[in-house]
From TrEMBL:
This is TetR family transcriptional regulator. It holds the Pfam family TetR_N. Residues 28-47 bind DNA. Residues 6-65 form the HTH tetR-type domain. Keywords: DNA-binding, Transcription, Transcription regulation. SUPFAM superfamilies: Homeodomain-like, Tetracyclin repressor-like, C-terminal domain. Gene3D superfamilies: Tetracycline Repressor, domain 2 (1.10.357.10). It comes from Actinoplanes ianthinogenes.
Length: 178
């Protein structure tokens, strides 16, 4: 790719990252091109559809999140790793509207796109964290990944995320032995 084309692609990605983070999926390709200082045709040459642009951006963020999951798994006990990662994921989604929409299934199937891209298997990382924490006895054995997605959605939507994380964390822990 020519150097000027590579610079334009980088400008488009950076601009789209900011736009999707603050405004979600509603931002048009034309508006992203305008903000990046390039034409709609330039955006379309690099990303033929809005979904392909969004996928590139979300997958870059997912790669970062999956790397964080693996680092957390390698450095923390299973229960701590699970709860630390869940809070991290909720925080990332709350700070990035586009990521929140992707993680909650609004308009983009992040799991399907991530699973098809090596190093981006968010669902696989979540599964590893969950099963390790369950095996360690720090997460209820009946909790599923579908439960986690619903709880993550609640945390993202909550006006007081810290409070909601405290409630969710308490609900995920096993009941004390009688």
């Amino acid at each position: 790719m020519r150097a000027d084309a590579e610079r334009n692609r980088a400008k488009v990605i950076e601009t789209a990252m900011q736009a999707f983070a603050t405004e979600g999926l509603t931002v048009s390709i034309a508006e992203i091109g305008r903000r990046a200082g390039v034409g709609t045709g330039t955006v379309s040459r690099h990303f033929p559809t809005k979904e392909s642009l969004y996928a590139a951006i979300v997958l870059a963020k997912v790669e970062e999140i999956v790397a964080k999951a693996h680092t957390t798994m390698a450095t923390e006990p299973p229960g701590t790793a699970f709860y630390t990662f869940f809070a991290y994921l909720a925080g990332q989604a709350t700070a990035n509207r586009g990521l929140a929409e992707a993680l909650t299934g609004a308009g983009f199937n992040v799991e399907a796109a991530a699973a098809a891209t090596p190093g981006h298997d968010l669902e696989g990382a979540e599964h590893q964290l969950l099963t390790a924490a369950q095996a360690a006895g720090t997460v209820r054995p009946d909790v599923t990944q579908a439960d986690l997605k619903a709880l993550l959605t609640a945390c993202i939507a909550a006006p007081d995320q810290s409070r909601m994380l405290t409630i969710v964390t308490a609900g995920l822990r096993p009941a004390p032995a009688a």
